[in-house]
Design goal:
The chain has eight domains: about 35 residues, no CATH class; about 80 residues, OB fold (Dihydrolipoamide Acetyltransferase, E2P) (Beta Barrel), CATH 2.40.50; about 70 residues, Nucleic acid-binding proteins (OB fold (Dihydrolipoamide Acetyltransferase, E2P)), CATH 2.40.50.140; about 70 residues, Nucleic acid-binding proteins (OB fold (Dihydrolipoamide Acetyltransferase, E2P), Beta Barrel); about 80 residues, OB fold (Dihydrolipoamide Acetyltransferase, E2P) (Beta Barrel); about 80 residues, Beta Barrel (OB fold (Dihydrolipoamide Acetyltransferase, E2P)); about 80 residues, OB fold (Dihydrolipoamide Acetyltransferase, E2P); about 110 residues, no CATH class. The chain is about 25% helix and about 30% strand. The protein contains 13 helices and 32 strands. The longest helix has about 35 residues. The radius of gyration is 66 Å and the shape is elongated. The termini are far apart.
């Protein structure tokens, strides 16, 4: 830089200074200087690699002169571990990144210059498909960075044939890769380790498949473990070791036997050269325990084992390592109905079984648990003979009956028809409960089908044989309660568990379309037994016959009632007498009215009728009275029928009482009228009859002294 103060101090003008410089320099030197300046500018072009000379090393910084007006500095950390430490006077290639730094120095980088030279070398020496060796430096998104002189990208999917769980485990390892892609513009290279491995394995596989044959024992390394088995690397080709070929015993998962990277010997079981697949076996290296099974476990022998697995159709029992047998669900109990094997056994149970069969070809053994115990059905006839009584517990219900457990494993069917002699039962739950203790009678035994029939009603005699026919003979009148209404009649409960049918035609003395029009459930009725059928266990009832009999009885009792009424009226009509002996006479002498005189005159005229005339007149009076009586009874029935049609069913009985009271009152009045008009038979004159006295003293009328209520 020019110090202007110094020029002013010495009073030297600029023109003078330029003149002195031009004179002090020779023409050749001036020409050389002008040619040197453009050359220095080209060397100092930004972004280019230039040669520099180390001027000094200060505080971990190397001061480098690159032929510019100022020096640049480079940290010593940009020299690699394998490179010699820089010292003054050494030359070095650096990248010129900038002309002016914060302190006016040139910005240089040795590391970037080395990287550019490395890229130039890689691009010059390598191409796609070439093999390179590098060190994995770090993990980035999607893969790894590998240093082969420059950092190249190794995708995670290209690290190995089977993608590892964590690619970071390769950091720090030197690996061999194959170049997949080179992007010159972006200075990006993609490499693959997997492709290199696959190419090598294909070659090894081809060689190995040419040498291998079934039955060979080879050594391999566990590369992967799955639920169904493990993949073994045989040195160029993978073989599958299935879980069923790992051990003669039961294995739940291959990890119980193998682990990753484990080396082991396996036997070649099968080779599929078309599909390049190899099946391996581990248990085949040892003798099969099934070779001695027929000798160690003959059919019929009783052995002990451990339950190792349970399925829907049975349980597997381990007899020894590699030897298991199946206990089918049907072979677990003689008597119990088992829905699932877990009801009898569980995993880990020690059980005693009997060998039922052996299939050496399929390596299968059939076992049975129930055969190790006594079959209770072998002695069922001795323990529960037909006709004997036994106690049991109700365990379950069906639509047709209940199952009663007599002892553990022995159940009998109590059919719904064998619960009661008389009671009609639709469901067994109506009279029984689960867990209830009941006493039953053994009715039948089927040993072949293992079935037992029980009955409760058979514990007592059949009441239909003698008791019911004697208690309810035909013609008996009984009372019962309505329990059910149907379209064809009414069921009437005569006693607990005994019902009779009152058919709709026997409900009343007239035509009925619906039973509920006459009776209701819970109503008590008086009925007549018209049929008893012990064979069919049915009782027929009738209410109509009782109604008709009541009407007939009432009609027959009417003449007698009339005679009793006349006698009472005649007695009431005799006058009161007073006095003593023959001189006695009427206590009160009332004068006769006109009507009384006519009645007395008519009586005197009739008194002179004797012989045949008197008999004919009596017959006419009797016929006239019967005709009036029939008409009277018919009117009462018609009135009752009309009234029933107009009032609700529940008021029928009350309405009938009103009709009966009305017509009883008319009966009394009819008798009075008849006694007033009928002439007295021949003989002494009758005493006077007073209608008011007869009405007040009529003992047969229930409404004496009151007006009729209609």
């Amino acid at each position: 830089m020019v110090d202007r103060n110094l020029l002013r101090e010495y009073d030297v003008s600029e023109e003078e200074l330029e003149k002195e410089i031009s004179e002090s320099l020779k023409p050749s030197e001036a020409d050389d200087l002008t040619t040197l300046l453009p050359k220095s500018s080209e060397q100092a072009e930004v972004g280019r690699i230039v040669q520099g000379r180390i001027v000094d090393v200060v505080n971990e910084l190397a001061v480098i002169d690159v032929g510019h007006k100022s020096e640049g500095v480079v940290p010593l950390s940009e020299w690699g571990e394998n490179e010699a430490k820089p010292k003054p006077g050494d030359t070095v290639e650096v990248l010129l990144e900038g002309l002016e730094g914060d302190g006016g120095e040139v910005i240089l980088s040795k590391r970037k210059a080395a990287r550019v030279r490395a890229w130039e070398r890689i691009l010059r020496e390598c191409k796609v498909g070439d093999l390179v060796v590098g060190k994995v430096t770090r993990k980035i998104k999607g893969g790894l960075l590998v240093d082969i002189g420059v950092n190249v990208f190794l995708p995670a999917s290209q690290v190995d044939v089977r993608r590892p769980g964590d690619v970071a485990e390769f950091i720090g390892q030197n690996i061999e890769c194959k170049i997949l892609k080179i992007d010159v513009d972006r200075r990006n290279i993609v490499v693959s380790r997997r492709k290199l491995i696959e190419e090598k394995r294909e070659e090894l596989k081809r060689q190995l498949l040419e040498q291998l044959k079934e039955g060979d024992v080879v050594r391999g390394t566990v590369k992967n473990i799955a639920d169904f088995g493990a993949f073994i690397d045989l040195g160029g080709v993978d073989g599958l070791l299935h879980i069923t070929d790992m051990s003669w015993g039961r294995i739940n998962h291959p990890s119980e036997v193998l682990k990753l990277d484990q080396e082991l010997d396996v036997k070649v079981l099968h080779i599929d050269r078309e599909r390049d697949k190899i099946a391996l076996g581990l248990k085949q290296l040892t003798p099969s325990p099934w070779e001695q099974v027929p000798l160690k476990y003959p059919v019929g022998s009783k052995v002990k084992g451990k339950v190792v697995n349970i399925v829907n159709y049975g349980a597997f029992v381990k007899l020894e390592d590699g030897v298991e047998g199946l206990v089918h669900i049907s072979e677990m109990s003689w008597t119990k109905r088992i829905s699932h094997p877990k009801e009898v056994v569980k995993i880990g149970d020690e059980v005693e079984v009997v060998v039922l069969g052996i299939n050496e070809e399929k390596q299968e053994i059939s076992l049975g648990i129930k055969q190790a115990k006594e079959n209770p059905w072998d002695r069922i006839d001795e323990k529960y003979p037909v006709g004997s009584t036994a106690k049991g517990t109700v365990r379950s219900f069906t639509n047709y009956g209940a199952f009663v457990e007599l002892e553990e494993g022995v159940e009998g069917l109590l059919h719904v028809s064998d619960i009661s002699w008389t009671q009609k039962i639709n469901q067994p739950a109506e009279v029984l409960k689960k867990g209830q203790q009941v006493e039953c009678k053994v009715l039948d035994i089927d040993r072949q089908r293992k079935r037992l029939s029980l009955g409760i009603k058979q514990l007592r005699p059949d009441p239909w044989e003698t008791e019911i026919p004697e208690k309810y003979p035909v013609g008996a009148v009984v009372k019962g309660k309505v329990t059910k209404l149907t379209s064809f009649g009414v069921f009437v409960e005569l006693e607990r568990g005994l019902e009779g049918l009152l058919h709709i035609s026997e409900l009343t003395d007239r035509k009925v379309h619906h039973a509920h029009d006459e009776v209701s459930v819970g109503e008590e009725l008086e009925v007549k037994v018209i049929r008893v059928d012990p064979k069919e266990r049915k009782i027929g009832l009738s209410r109509r016959q009782l109604i008709e009999e009541a009407k007939t009885t009432a009609a027959e009792e009417a003449p007698a009632k009339e005679r009793r009424g006349r006698d009472r009226r005649a007695k009431a009509a005799q006058p009161l007498k007073g006095g003593v002996g023959e001189g006695s006479g009427p206590l009160i002498d009332l004068s006769q009215s006109g009507t009384d005189q006519k009645r007395q005159q008519h009586g005197q005229e009739q008194a002179h009728l004797v012989g045949p005339a008197a008999g004919q007149e009596g017959d006419r009076r009797i016929a006239r009275g019967q005709s009036e009586r029939r008409s009277h009874l018919g009117g009462r029935a018609e009135t009752r029928r009309q009234l029933h049609e107009r009032v609700p069913h529940e008021l029928h009985r009350h309405a009938g009482l009103l009709v009966d009271r009305h017509f009883e009152r008319e009966d009394d009045q009819h008798l009075v009228r008849q006694s007033l008009h009928d002439p007295q038979p021949a003989g002494p004159p009758r005493p006077e009859l007073r209608a008011d006295v007869v009405d007040d003293r009529d003992a047969e009328s229930p409404h004496r002294g009151r007006e009729p209520e209609v």
